[in-house]
Design goal:
Largest sheet: 2 strands, antiparallel
Strand content: under 5%
Order of helices and strands: HHEEHHHHH
Strand order of the largest sheet: 1-2
Radius of gyration: 35 Å
Structural class: mainly alpha
Shape: rod-shaped
Number of strands: 2
Oligomer: single chain
Amino acid sequence: MTNPAYEATNSDVEKLIKCARINAECGEHASPEEMLKLVAALEHERKQKNSWKNLAKKSISERSVDIEALLSARHRIAELESQPLCVKSNDAMREVAPLCVKLPAAATDVLAERQRQITSEGWAPEHDDEHDSGEMAGAAACYARYTNARGWIFKSNPDGYRSENEPHDWPWSPDWWKPTNPRRDLVKAGALIIAEIERIDRAAMLKSVISEP
């Protein structure tokens, strides 16, 4: 048979304590049944408080883990974004320093264009992360294909090369389609590829950090 005192609520505990106090003041002793009910009610309340306390600790612990994971991910992303790339703008955009090894002009031009996209166009990592459907890779492909298909006309008709409409699979507004010359457009394509790789790395890093136990 289940003792009904085990189902006691806070109100029941208060009533039992009040009753015991009145009995004590009157010089009367509580009956064994009353004492058992009071003890059971107090024990039930203690267990309930411990349960709430453990639940609160668990919630705080889980939130702390989430916050730590997010901070760790942001720190790692900041490390990825703080590679030693100091660009000094000039006509060719080739002065990139410091670099551990001497890179060919083609590579430094691509890196400088990537930095220009960030500093001049405002395409910061937060902006790039919004384009998570392959848009940057698609834009790079458009420039590369256009150079391959139409680059031959540049020598004889540079204005014609620059004035053609955007490809049908250009991912953004036509205003952002800006063919310049074959080499420059390949530099743009390379910088966009780097931007897409950086976005993929950031997304993978964030996912791995948050999913760690």
